[in-house]
Each structure stands twice: as structure tokens, then as C-alpha cells.
Amino acid sequence: MAKSNTTPVMKQYSKIKEQYPDAFLFYRVGNFYELYGNDAIKGAQLLELTLTHRFKNTKHPVSMVGMPCAVADTYVDTLVEKGYKVALCEQLENPQKAKGLIKRGITQLITPGTIMKGGSNEAEDSNYLTSVVRTKSSFGLAYSDLSTGEIYTTHLRSFAVVSNELLSLRTKEVVYNGPLTDQDNNFMHKANITVSKPILLKGKHAEISYVQQKLTNRAEKEAVKQLVGYLLTTQKRILAHLQIAKSYEVNQYLQMSHTVQNNLELTASAKTGKKRGSLFWILDKTHTAMGGRLLKQWLARPLLSTDKINYRQEMVQALLEGYFTRENIIDALKGVYDLERLTGRIALGTVNARELLQLAYSLQIVPVILDALNQSDSTVLRKYAAKINPLKDIAQLISTTIIKDPPVLATKGGLIREGVDKQLDRYRNTISNGKKWLAQMEAKERKKTGIENLKVGYSKVFGYFIQVTNSNKDKVPLNRYTRKQTLTNAVRYTTPELKEHENLILEAHSKAINLEYKLFVELCEEVEKYIPALQKLARQLASLDVCYSLATVAEQNNYCRPNFHTNNQDIKIVAGRHPVVEKVMKAGKYIPNDTHMGSDTDIYLITGPNMSGKSTYMRQVALIAIMAQVGSFVPADSADLPIFDQIFTRIGAADDLISGQSTFMVEMDEANIALRYATKRSLVLFDEIGRGTATYDGMALAGAIVKYLHDKVGAKVLFATHFHKLTDLDKTLDRLKNIHVSATEKNNKLIFLHKVLPGPADKSYGIRVAQLAGVPPMVLREATKLLKRLEVQNNKLIPTSKRPDPLINSSDREDKQEKDMQNGDDNRLEVLRVEKDIIDKIYNLSLMDKTPRQIMQMVENWQEDLKDK
Ligand SMILES: Nc1ncnc2c1ncn2[C@@H]1O[C@H](COP(=O)(O)OP(=O)(O)O)[C@@H](O)[C@H]1O
Ligand SMILES: [Mg+2]
């Protein structure tokens, strides 16, 4: 173990490690990083590296793994991705100049919430570090993306709301000042969130008072202070790009829990977790990484203010109508790099010359964008252009300072253009004159000595030399030449003249490199002064990119601009479509549907066979509402909408993976949240609630929930159900309307029309769907008979269809058993219980989830059960 080994190096190591017990300590030794002790043992496992030992032949060998510094990045990424932290411990002095043990210290703590991966132009997602402060009465929450420096903060009433924010932000790391209950800990663990203790800062820090300046709430101030404190201590550098913290209220936006966002597949498909199949997938036609990130933020936080929504709509419309403006802008935007992250790198001091040029190129494009906007007919676009500062000076400064194709390293020279600095030019002149002199000397010496292949060369160790091959050794004028180095087939010489020029060249070279680096740093410092302006410009371009994207999507898919009214909650959508489902279908195949929920309709009770389109219809309404409040156009011929304050869902039967609860618990939990927090201004989607439990339980609960929503909540509710009995509720609940998704028969086959029509669905479609799925006719006939009987026997639990059923012939209908039952023959009751049980199963069977083989198996089991009786 590291502790028992008392060599000076290990003592130094232990002292540093003590301060970072929860991080992997990467200890720099020359060109390697080494991990010792437990870090090494665990690291070897996680990184698949070979475990070796240091001080092998002593009493106290130390476990060790090592890696070249050049490849360390990927190992750091791997560990941090798994939720660990890495402390980089560097050599703080030049090993050649150090006396005794080299000074070492931690230069950066890399954590899941602060890691910045890859270059500056490939980041589609934000990585948020979140800080949570528990005060007496509330929770302060603040988060920041270190690569861009934006900071947001809010205060929340309970830990439940805090956890929801954490999930919505997809935060990887939380700095938390309070103790966590077991349940909270469990939540963090399942959500893959690393919990870090706050680090107390001593003294005053300019960064903190700067970012806090607009805040008034105490919990928010504390959260921001804790956040910035953590960033400063882990990063150990000045963070000039941290932006003034913006306070937000969760209720300034259309509120949707993380589960709701997932259920509605706003940014990722629920099935695959990928972008494809999500609303973001449809809407994202952005051309910059910052635009993509901004669109995601807009989707997660749709607006409540009609003015703000209107403004976005105006922008989208102007771009939609101005085809040429749009095309010109986008051609230009394509060349814009990730300004947000570039600015971050400038602030963090990690920017290189190539990235500075990327910044300059991007800035040079801005005037082109401004021209396009200014030439537009739209006043909105022209006004937008007037607000943009293209920062021409900065672009000019960078592009006239940095050469065209600079190296990544700033310490090796070759970065700065000619004419930038007189002294640098002088050095370069000396170098180039020196080199010219060398060439001339080579020619001269060849002539003088008669050695044809004599040549002047340079090596790092020996400097400049004259090289002569062994065969010509005798011709060397030893009175002038001094031997410098002997190779196998040649000898290298120098002369006093050469020595003198060598000194001139090398000195000029080393001075030039140092001067170039100094000039580069000065340039960075100059650019740094423009960080707030660059950040503002980045946001303006990102917004423009998003509006462009929304305009393009609206045009390609024939969306309309929705209208809003604030005096009532009426929904009026004509020919609405589901943006994603319509897109994955062949053009023209999607059947549009209207939604008219006026003041007389709060609840749509939706029935219809499996696979007819109930779920699709409900989601389509929610997605249209969300898109509208984001400022996007919507997939419909026209849409008149209220502003919703919250959206609640209970959709699908997938278990909640994060909390690990059972389906039914999750179902009730989500239903409960909707019942408690929904207001008259909310939109509620309940899809087949009660499915997760026994039929009668489920139906009773579903019925009670509908009634509660109707009587007590008054939200707009779309309620899809397979409990046909519930369609009777329209007799007692006057703001409930039955609608159904229609299907029809042709040649005794069921055809889905996907058309939403008034009134309840015909209940016997369940059996018709079975027929469609290829269930044998005998079973279908039997099922139909049993269904009929059951309707009579079971107090008409399921409303009788008025239509005669074509699947049953008249002789069947006069079946003797039926008469027996109607006569109330008690002996039949036990048999009927079994039959009814089977009927229930058939009735509730979701056929589309089953293979024909599974259905055959079930039918066989039912036959067995029937035979037993
Ligand atoms: N309006 C529509 N137009 C065309 N096809 C539709 C429509 N609505 C749904 N569908 C198709 O029907 C399938 C089943 O829809 P879904 O909403 O899951 O049905 P349900 O919830 O009634 O079981 C969808 O995957 C889609 O392919
Ligand atoms: Mg469904």
C-alpha cells in the first residue's frame, strides 16, 4: 500500500491523495501518468490495463498502473463516464532544473458534471453540473454547462420537484449540501447521478459576485455560490466566461415532468432512446451545434407568454415566406463553428490557434448573414439584424495575426503572420539570412574542397554541421574543419564561421518561438475581453438557426401557424396530424383528425379497437400544443389553442426503470400527480389507465378518475380506454363526450379507418380484431356466443350492441344453453364463471403484442379449461 512505503515520492503522493480521497489520482511522472494503490487496482479493472508494481524488490511494493500522457484523455473519459472523478497531478517545475523531488500539485479535478469532451464542434448535448442547496424552507437549484458558461437558477418547494428537474436536465453530477435520505440516494444511484460534497471557498471571489448580481432569492444565491465555488476549485483557473446567472421559475414555462417528456418522445424515442422517432428528430434542421442545443432547450421549456410565442412565430413566418433570405442565411450559417464552445475554450485557456481562426471565419460570415437579413422584406428580420454586432474588429485582429494553416501547438512557433511584430520579423530575417548563408557556404565549400557530395545539415543535439562521407575524408581541410561527430559512413565537422552563424540562427529561433507564444497569449487576452459580446452573438445566431429550422420543417410538412386565445381553454384543431407518425408513413397515408373541445367538452373518452389510432390521436393533440407553445408551426390545417400551463400523461405500460416500481404503481403514481396538480389550464392524457390491474378494479378506478377530473379538476382531458362500460359516463357527466376511432368491415374483415368520429365504439370489435389476427373461426364463434351470454348474465356490464352480429348464425343464437341461462339455471353458474373468465381474457387480450403461436397456445389452454367443466 502507498502509505506504508515511505520513499519521498510516495510520501508526496500520499499527501496529495489525502486531499482527493474520492478521485482517481493521475500522478505525473515524466511522460506518464501513474495510479497507485487502490486507485491502481480499481483502475486496472475499469480501464483494462495491466496491474504492475513499483518498488518491486523492496519490503513495500506499491500496486501501479501507468499510461503515456498522450493517450490519457480516453482513460479519463472512460472513468468519468462511469461516474468517477479524476484528479490530474502534474509536475509543477522543470525536472531538469528541480533540486531534489519535483514539486507536484493538482491542476484540475475532472468530474462527470465538468468534463468537456472532444473538439469544439461536435457537441449536440449540453452537460450540466447542478448544485442543490437545502435551506429551511426550500431548495435552491443552479446549473451550468462549463463549456458555454451559461448559468440558470431557481428555487423549488420539495425534493421531488428537485429530482424531476435533475432528470429533465439529464444532469450527471449534483453538488449537494444536505444529507440524503436512503430513498434519495437510491434515486441518484438509479439515475446515474454522481453526488459531490460542496467545497467551501475562502475569501471573496469576483466571479461569484459577478454571476450573482441579478439574483434576489437567498436559496438561489446560495446555490449559485456553491456551483461557482465547485467549478473554481475543480478547474483551478479563472473562469471568465461564466455568465450572469438567470433566475427562472418552473412555472414560467409549460411544465412537463421528465416522465411526460419521455412519454411524448420529445427528444428521444421511448423505445430506442435515440433521436430518431422523436419530435426533435422532426424539428431539427439546424446547421450549427449551438442551434441544435438551443432547440432542445426550447422543446423542454415551451413558453407561457403569448407575446414571446408570437415573436418566435413572427421570425419563423418571415423565414418561411422569404425563401431567398432563408437560403442565403443557411448557406452562411453552415460555415459558422460552435461559437458558444469556442468562447468557452478561450475563457478556459484551452483554445489553440486553429480554433481562434475558426472563430474568425465564423465572425467573417456574420456580415453575410446580416446582408441577407437586411435585404429581406420582413421588418422583423431587419430589426433582428439591427441587434446583431458582428464584432468585425475581433475577426480582423485574429485573421491578420494568425497564419493561414497554423499548428495546434502554440509553443513551437509558426503561428504568427509576418508584419505583426517588428522584432519577430527581425528574428525571422536573421533565420532566413542565416539559412541563405548556409546554402551559399555549402556551394562554396564544395568548390573549395572538391567534395561533390559535401552537405550542410542540422541535428537537434549537435546543431549545424558539414557532413562528408568516409570516401572523401582525405580531402577535408583539417586546418579549417573541426570534427564534431563520427557516423558509420560519414563524419560531421564544423568551422568557426559556421559556429558563429549557428549561434545567430538558433538564438533567433528560440527568441522567435518565445515571442510568438507571447503574441499568441496577448491575442487570446484581447479576444477574452469580448467574451460577453461573443456569447450574445452566439445566442443570436443559434436562435436564428432554430427559427430557420422551424420554418423549413413547416414548409416541408405543410404546417400552419397556430392562433392563441387566453380568455378560454377551447381547443379547435382542424385536420391535425401526428408529426412523427405522419412522417414515417408514406406521403398522404396519414388520416388527419379534428379536435373540438369547447367549453361544453372537458373530457374526450376515446374508444376503438386496438391499433385503430387512439394513442396516436391523443399524442397528436399534446404534441401540437407543445409545438405551438415552443413557437413552431403545427401539423394541422388550422389550430386555435389556449395556453396550457402543464401537461400530464399516463401513457404506455413500460415500467419506470429509474424508480423500479411496478407498472400499476407507476400508473397510479402518475395518475395521482395529475389529479393533484392539474388545473383548469392543464392538458391531461390518460391512455388505457387501469390496465395494470384486475379488470374490475381497473375499470372502477378508471371510472372514478374520470369523474374526479370532470367534477373537481376541469382540465382538458383525453382519456382512451378499453373499458366500454365507461362510455355510459356521458349520461351523468355533462362535459364528457364519447368519441371513437373508427374501423369498418369488408368481406368480414376489419379495416382501420383511423378516423375519429363522435360516439362510443362498437364493442364487438375485439373479436373482429382476433379474426384479423387469424384466430381460428371456431374460437371466434365460441367467443361471440360467450360474449352474448355474458352480457345478459352479467348485469349488462358491457353495453349491448344494437346491431345483430354477423359472426353468429341464427341457430347459434337460439342455442339451448342460452335459454338455460336465461332461465337462471344455478348449475350452470360455476361453468359460466370459467367461461366468463376466458371471455375476459379474450376481451382484454392485446393481440398485436402476441405471435400467432402464442395465441394458439392460449386457445388450446382455454379449450382444456372448458373441457374440464
Ligand atoms: N390517423 C392515422 N392515420 C393513419 N395511420 C394511423 C393513424 N393513427 C394511427 N395510425 C396507425 O395505427 C397504428 C396504431 O395506432 P395506435 O394509436 O397505437 O392505436 P391504439 O392506441 O388505438 O391501439 C399506428 O402505429 C399507426 O401506424
Ligand atoms: Mg394505444
UniProtKB/TrEMBL annotation:
InterPro entries: DNA_mismatch_repair_MutS (IPR005748), DNA_mismatch_repair_MutS-lik_N (IPR007695), DNA_mismatch_repair_MutS/MSH (IPR017261), DNA_mismatch_repair_MutS_C (IPR000432), DNA_mismatch_repair_MutS_clamp (IPR007861), DNA_mismatch_repair_MutS_core (IPR007696), DNA_mismatch_repair_MutS_N (IPR016151), DNA_mismatch_repair_MutS_sf (IPR036187). ATP binds at residues 608-615. Residues 682-698 form the DNA mismatch repair proteins mutS family domain. Keywords: ATP-binding, DNA damage, DNA repair, DNA-binding, Nucleotide-binding. Belongs to the DNA mismatch repair MutS family. NCBIfam families: mutS1 (TIGR01070), PRK05399.1 (NF003810). This is DNA mismatch repair protein MutS. The gene is mutS.
